[in-house]
Amino acid sequence: MPTRAIAVEQTHNRGGGAVYPLGELKSLRSLADAHGLKLHCDGARLFNAAVAAGVPPAEYASLFDTMSICLSKGLGAPVGSVVVLSDPAMAEAARVIRHRLGGAMRQAGILAAAGIYALDNNVSRLADDHARARRLAEALRGTLPGIDPARVETNMVIVDLPADADADAAAGRCAADGVLISVLSPRRIRLVTHLDVDDEGIDRAIAALRRSV
C-alpha cells in the first residue's frame, strides 16, 4: 500500500506523555507537503501538550489536515471525542462513515454539554495534573530507580521495574490498596494523573507503590 498520510499522537502515550515540539511538527508538515501526503493528529491529549508547552491548540491544529480531540481523559468529560477536518467534503464523508459504523446518536446534547463544559473550565487545570505527576515521580525516585523525573513532561509517569519485579503482581497489590496502575509490559508500568486524582490521592499512590512495587 502506498503511504497516504502521516499520523502523530499528541501527547505520545507510550512515550510517557511526551510533547511533540512545535518545530518537529512543522518539519513533518513540510515533509508531508513535499510528498503530497496528508498530516493527521491523534490529539488524545492535545490540551495537555498546549498547557505544558505554552503553545495555543489552534497553532498546533493549523499544521494538520485532520485532527481528533478527546474530551475525556484529562479534560474530565464522561465521554466524547471530536473530529476536526479542514475540508468540508471530507467532513461530510466522515459523517456518512460514522453513521455506517453505528456512530449516530440522538439526544446527544447532554454529552455535548459536558464536552463544552470541559473545554471552558478544565483546560488550565491540566497544569495541576502535570505538577502532581512530577511530584509522584520525584517521591518514588528513591524507591524505583527506573523512574526519570526529567522525562515527565505532562501527566504520565513511566516506570521500569527492577529485573526481579513482576508488573502484574505489583498492579494487583496496588489495586488492593485502591490505586489503579497500567501494565505496559512484564516489567513496565504507567502512572497517570487526571481530574479525579487530588493531592491526597497522590499521597495514597506514593504509599501504595512503595509497599507494592
Question: Nutshell version of this structure?
Answer:
The chain has 213 residues and is α/β, with parallel strands linked by helices. 43% of the residues lie in helices and 16% in strands. The strands form two sheets. It has a four-stranded mixed β-sheet with strand order 1-2-3-4. A three-stranded antiparallel β-sheet has the order 5-7-6, covered by helices on one side.
Please, could you describe this protein's structure?
- By secondary structure, the chain is α/β, with parallel strands linked by helices.
- The chain has two domains: 5-121, Aspartate Aminotransferase, domain 2, CATH 3.40.640.10; 126-212, Alpha-Beta Complex (Aspartate Aminotransferase, domain 1).
- Helices cover 43% and strands 16% of the residues.
- It contains eight helices and seven strands.
- A four-stranded mixed sheet has the order 1-2-3-4.
- Strand 1, helix 1 and strand 2 (38-43) form a beta-alpha-beta unit.
- Helix 7 packs across helix 8 (199-212).
- The protein starts with a strand and ends with a helix.
- The model has no long low-confidence stretch (mean pLDDT 92).
